[in-house]
TrEMBL record:
<dbReference type="InterPro" id="IPR006597">
    <property type="entry name" value="Sel1-like"/>
</dbReference>
<dbReference type="Pfam" id="PF08238">
    <property type="entry name" value="Sel1"/>
</dbReference>
<dbReference type="InterPro" id="IPR050767">
    <property type="entry name" value="Sel1_AlgK"/>
</dbReference>
<protein>
    <submittedName>
        <fullName>Sel1-repeat-containing protein YbeT</fullName>
    </submittedName>
</protein>
<dbReference type="InterPro" id="IPR011990">
    <property type="entry name" value="TPR-like_helical_dom_sf"/>
</dbReference>
Length: 97
């Protein structure tokens, strides 16, 4: 946990995303959805596609952030453009058949 925090503080986006997942799940730390959302947002703004997807889910469900469907869709699109497989799958599943 502390190693991820130090790396995150030093600007490592992958570590920031991992730390956010730990906070989101309460793995090794007290669960803190608001802090997880903050970290996902920071990593997402830096271009981490996994964080962009996670933030889109949090915004869509209102976990750690107020629900915001428009912002959720924007982050989902960015995650898909970044090649994150889950984001691509969600968009594919939403396409009319």
């Amino acid at each position: 946990m502390e190693a991820y925090r130090r790396l995150s503080d030093a600007g490592n986006l992958r570590a920031r995303t991992r730390l956010a997942w730990m906070l989101e799940a309460g793995r090794g730390v007290r669960r803190d959805l608001a802090q997880a959302a903050d970290l996902f947002e920071s990593a997402a703004q830096g271009g981490d596609a996994e964080a962009q997807y996670a933030l889109s889910v949090m915004l869509r469900t209102g976990a750690g952030r107020p629900m915001d469907e428009a912002a959720a869709q924007r982050w989902l699109m960015r995650a898909a453009e970044g090649g994150y497989p889950e984001a691509v799958a969600v968009l594919r599943d939403r396409m009319p058949r």
